[in-house]
Amino acid sequence: MSTAEQHERPGRRTVLRAAVAGGVAAAATGAAAAVPAQAGESAGRRHFDTDSPRFTLAVLPDTQYLFDADSTDPAPLRETFRYLAADRSGANIAFMTHLGDVTEHGTEDEIRRAAGTFRALHGKVPYSVLAGNHDIASSTDDQRGDSAYLREFGPRRYASMPTFKGASPDGYNSCHVVRAAGRDWLVLALDWRISDKGMGWAQGVLDAHPALPAVLTTHDLAFADEEGGARLSGNGQRLWDGLIRSNDQIFLALGGHYWPPGRTVLRNDSDNDVHVHITNYQDRYYGGAGMIRTYGFDVVRKVIDVETFAPWFLARDPARRSPLEAETVELTGLADRFSLSIDFDERFRGFSPVVQPEPRPASAVMPRGTIAYWRFDASGMKAVPDGGPVTDGSVVRDLSGNGNDLTVGRLHSSGPEALTWSADHHPGQPAHACLRFDGGKDPDRGAVLRTGARAPLNSEKFLRGYTIETFVRLPEPFQGDHSWMGILSWEGRNGEAGKTTGWSPREPTCSLNLSPERFLQFVVYPHRQDADPTSWSHAVPVGRWMHVAVVNDGRRTVVYVDGSKIARNPTAPSTGIATLGRPFVLGATQFDGAFGQGFYGWLGDTRIVDRPLRTRDFLTPSD
Known about the structure:
The structure is a single chain. It contains 10 helices and 34 strands. By secondary structure, the protein is α+β, with helices and mostly antiparallel strands. It is 12% helix and 28% strand.
């Protein structure tokens, strides 16, 4: 129908379908007791990674023009299904959802041919389908009773899929749970016209799975203008008022039925975003040609990347594509290709808060060879109120028992705010505490923690290699000039060690610093070689915790950020550290023999081991 018709008669067509992954329980004919989700599909177990932080939800809108009486042509859809099955591993496809209007007239023949085409996905990719207004009598709701659609696309079709968790008593509404990115996700596939009974069933499913983020799919949800701005249709408003707005779990709602595609963001009763999208390409060449939209979830980057393309055209030799095929192979407009920024933990906090791990005792994180371990909770230092100053002379105990205690001192007559205590911490940090350093320039200010003059760490040579770890968080916004601020170092000078390389003979023999571009710089003057191999990171983030590890195997040094090896690690030989019996310092670096500015940010647990550790043995299990 035309765009004008769509807006004049918003109830004439419909689609419903969307899904995501999750593992929860549902009812076979209602909101039954919870059933644990399975970790993988029985037939796709080898092809889909339930623990990967990246997964894909495939969305298939109106296919009605491909199943239209004697002009039926299922070839485009067969290629779409072949693509999804073949690329399941590469794109980590968790689920596919159809948004309704499978067929044009809903006849026995059309429905049967469509059902046969969908069988190509069985045992390969789990999926859901819902009725659109062209698949059933459009004047009815989900209490319509028997239909050709229900006989082919009713609950029996999904019964063998591990993701299927139940259907409403009428059979036209279903729920699915897929496990992806290490958690369970709920998909509600709702009829083109859901009845009050159907709404009650959907609410029951949500109530039975209160901790699962949910994607709602339906046929008739919203319509858009030519610029892609969407607003709810009459049926969409009913769903919003009766189900979506009061259930914070629903963060994404998908519909078809109308064109052009579009999207909007609404605020629910919990004052959280709900993304509402229209997906429909039947007005495009060849009835949309089985075009799909993929929602690429990335919980690490905290985004959903959306793309739209036609596998049928994609499979053809580019040199032999017709002009219309080439034009339609991929859609890149703002309504068809975009990214959504979603902090999943924060968005889901109201109904599924992240469970923080309990603090781990020091004894559990001191492997063989630990020569120093400092933490800032009650096990390591005298208790201080949150935000309170850590006074000069305070001692942070070396929990390894090797006598490398740190003593607090301020730089350049800095005030109490130069060093304060905080309960903030990296999620994977053993101790749930840190120190907040307020160092800076103009004037130089800050605070340091230093080992005593006779601490064993001062003279340790590390000839077998070493691992130095710490947790760092930079403020956001990162204000002021903090270039070349030090994080940790030894006070020994390279000139004192007889080294002739380097920009100054008074440079520290070992230091971890931050460049003006926010690159981490680890520079070391080895005990044996006359060299200064230096590692450089990328520009590190602000506003969030990161784990930094420096690992030397006795030959070369590699720096890791959040368990990932950085690129700029030198290959020059590096054996040991020329420590020279001088104190180890946390919170600043001496350049040319004097402390300048101190560190600006938060520092957490810090550990030094006299051998190289593997990433799995780092302080944070998230690495």
